[in-house]
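Model it.
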Amino acid sequence: MKKKLEIFQIDAFTDSPFKGNPAGVCFADGLSTSEKQLIAREINLSETAFISKSKIADYKLQWFTPTSEVKLCGHATIATLHFLKEKKLLSEGQQIRFETLSGVLKCYSNRNRYFMEIPIPKISTYKNSSR
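Modeled.
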């Protein structure tokens, strides 16, 4: 049985076609991790974002490069926010939460701009073994 899947290419950080930073975006309910990886490889953009149902947030969001899943991708998250707003699933000023490998990301739109709160990086001391 064949699945019908719509995949959108959205250029983040621009108002002009063929500029900005492109990302693939699609709904992913019912897709396995291996299917997501194959799709990302086929799309061959730096990242493809996959949106699915979540039990702890509004949506689950996963990002795949052509070769692996990644923990966080800013431009593909921004592209996803634009996609959800275009699909009328995100309203102006509405906060939305994504379940990700990096934790729950809080995002919102405001005046056709998109914002995301990212986790504070964990910094550790580098110990040079040659000293």
